[in-house]
Amino acid sequence: xxxxxxxxxxxxxxxxxxxxxxxxxxxxxxxxxxxxxxxxxxxxxxxxxxxxxxxxxxxxxxxxxxxxxxxxxxxxxxxxxxxxxxxxxxxxxxxxxxxxxxxxxxxxxxxxxxxxxxxxxxxxxxxxxxxxxxxxxxxxxxxxxxxxxxxxxxxxxxxxxxxxxxxxxxxxxxxxxxxxxxxxxxxxxxxxxxxxxxxxxxxxxxxxxxxxxxxxxxxxxxxxxxxxxxxxxxxxxxxxxxxxxxxxxxxxxxxxxxxxxxxxxxxxxxxxxxxxxxxxxxxxxxxxxxxxxxxxxxxxxxxxxxxxxxxxxxxxxxxxxxxxxxxxxxxxxxxxxxxxxxxxxxxxxxxxxxxxxxxxxxxxxxxxxxxxxxxxxxxxxxxxxxxxxxxxxxxxxxxxxxxxxxxxxxxxxxxxxxxxxxxxxxxxxxxxxxxxxxxxxxxxxxxxxxxxxxxxxxxxxxxxxxxxxxxxxxxxxxxxxxxxxxxxxxx
Length: 491
Description:
This protein is of the alpha+beta class and 491 residues long. It is built from eleven helices and 14 strands. It has a six-stranded mixed beta sheet with strand order 11-12-10-9-7-14, with helices on one face. Strands 2-1-5-4-3 form a five-stranded antiparallel beta sheet. A hairpin with a 4-residue loop joins strand 1 and strand 2.
C-alpha cells in the first residue's frame, strides 16, 4: 500500500514537474516569439519607411518626368510649328519665283496663313502711295458662317492712330480683347459689326516703304496672341513684301518692253519704206536697160544694194523680235512637206555656199509637219546661213531629218570654226556673236539664233547644240505635230 502510494506520488510529481517544465519552455518560446515579433515589427517599420521614401522618390521622379514630358511636348510642338512656319515661308518664296501673278500669290497666302495660325479670318491690304490709303485685296474665312468684310472700305484709312502707327512707326498692332483696349467708338463699332474679338495686324514693308498689311481676326472667341504667332506673321509679311515689289517691278518692265516693242515696230516700218526704195532703185540702175554705167559706178551701186539688203535684214529681224516680245506675232499653222521646205531654203542659200565652195549634203525623210511654213523656213535659213557664214572655204554641211514619237528632229552639222565653252552661253542672246577673229569678220545682226529659238519655242519645240572649237558645230531642233512618210530623199 505504502509502496503504491509512493509510486503514485512519484508519478504525480513527475507529471507536475513535467507541466512546470513545459510551462517554462512555453513561456520561453513565447518570449522568443515576442522578441521575434518585436524585431519583425521593427524591420517592417524600417521597410515601410524605406518604401515610403521610395514612394516619395518615385513621386518626385514622376513629377520630374511629367515636367520633362511637358517640356519635350512643348519642344516638339515648337519644332512642328517652326517646320510649318518654314513650310509656309518656303511656299511663299517658291510662289514668288514661280508666279508673277500677285493676286494669285496673295489669295493663296492668306489661306495658308489662316490655316497655319487657325484664325477665323485673314486679310491682306495694299497701300496706294499716290492716294495714301489702304485697299483690301484678299480675304480668307475659315468657314461660310464667318461674315465677309466689305473690301471697298478699309478701317485703317479712317483710324488715324492706327494709320499713323502702321505707316510711320511700321509696328505690329496686337489686341487680345478689344473691349479692354479700344477707346475709339468708330473702331469699336467696326469690331462689333464683324464680330472681331481679338485682332493682330502687321505692316508689309520693303526697304522702309509701307506696301500693305496682313491682319488676323478671331471672331469665335477671345485669343491671347503668342509671340511665335506674331513672329510668323512678320516673317511672312517680309516675303509678301518681296512678292509685291517683284510684281510691281515686273509690271514696270512689261510696260517698258511694250513701249520699246511699239517703238521698234514703228521705227522698223519707217525704215523699211526708204530702204526698199534704195534697194529697188540701185538694182534698177544695175540692169542694162537704164543706160551705160562705168565699172566704178557699178561697184558703188552694187555696194549700195548689198548694204541696203543687209540693213533691211537687220530691220526685219528687229521687227520680228519686237513682235515676239510684245506677243503680237501670230503663227499660221498649215500642213506641209518638211523635205520640200528645207530644199527650197537650201536653194535660196546655194549661191552663198558656192562662193565658199561649201558642199551641202541632205539626208532628209519626207516628213509631214503642221507648223507655220514661213517661220519654219526662217528657222532653217538662220541655221543654214549661220553654218555657211562660220565654215571655212571648202567645208561641208550636213542636214538631216528624223521622225520620232510624232516629232520632227532637224540637225544641221558643219565643219566650221566651232564654239568655245566661254561663248556657249551667248549663242541665243540678243545682239551677241561668238568672240573670235573669224566671227568678227562676218556680217550679222546677232539676232538670227535668238529669233530661231523664239520661233521654235512658239511652236512648243526645243533647240540645242553641241560644238567644239575648230571642229564644227551641230545644231538641232525638235517640233511636234509631225507625221511619217515612206519617201526618203538623199543627195
